[in-house]
Amino acid sequence: MGDRLRLAVGVMGNAASLLLYAAPILTFARVLRKKDTEGFSCIPYIIALLNCLLYTWYGLPVVSCRWENFPVVTINGLGTLLEFSFILIYFWFASARDKMKVAAILIPVVLVFGVTAVISGFLFHDHHHRKVFVGSVALVASVAMYGSPLVVVRQVLQTKSVEVMPFYLSFFSFIASLLWMAYGPPTHDLFVAICIVTKNPLCEARLHA
């Protein structure tokens, strides 16, 4: 019963996260149509890319025990493709100055992921310590991702318009957060639920079997 409930919540979490990651499609469809980024920031999409990369790595058997976090891998893998596509479109139509800003943020982001993957893969030799390390880095990226839309708050206050802060992006972010919070406790994986460090008893049992 517990496994079925966890799977059901994972599927719903995936659906909500898919809507969250797909929410900017309408925004970038307008960018493609107008061939102009209209001055909005690319920072939320770059931070979201880092978040997706880290949680995809976190859910793979290299870090997690076998495929215990398979739903985390599927949605974040898809999120990686979507966020990369959005960044590519933004970069293509951005001004030269904005392209420099994107590159200045994107390169360190890729380096952070690369260093995290190398350290977790070669310096730690058990799943628990790998999960603690990757989960801690992913926690920071996750907080940054959910907080990154705040960069447009100043623009909203100045223009008195919420056009640059779409309702559906905020709504699906809230729903996805609730569902993934519910997904974590049954497996004692609090990095997924509320991002608190904990051992996974199931993982430890497998390691010592």
Helical content band = over 70%
Q: Work out the count of structural domains.
A: 1
Relative strand content: under 5%
Low-confidence stretches: 194-209
What is Rg?
18 Å
What is the makeup of the main sheet? none
* Ends apart, CA distance between termini: 24 Å
Structural class: mainly alpha
Inertia-based shape: globular
Count of DSSP-assigned helices: 10
How many E-type strands?
Answer: 0
Verbal overview:
With 209 residues, the chain is mainly α. It is built from ten helices and no strands. The protein has one domain (2-32, 41-207). The protein has helices at 2-22, 25-34, 43-59, 70-93, 96-122, 127-147, 153-159, 167-183, 190-193, 201-207.
Structure at a glance:
The protein is mainly alpha-helical. It has helices at 2-22, 25-34, 43-59, 70-93, 96-122, 127-147, 153-159, 167-183, 190-193, 201-207. Helices cover 74% and strands 0% of the residues.
Features:
disordered C terminus, 0% strand, 209 residues
Topology:
Blueprint: H1 2-22, H2 25-34, H3 43-59, H4 70-93, H5 96-122, H6 127-147, H7 153-159, H8 167-183, H9 190-193, H10 201-207
Helix pairs in contact: 1-4, 1-8, 2-4, 3-4, 3-5, 3-6, 5-6
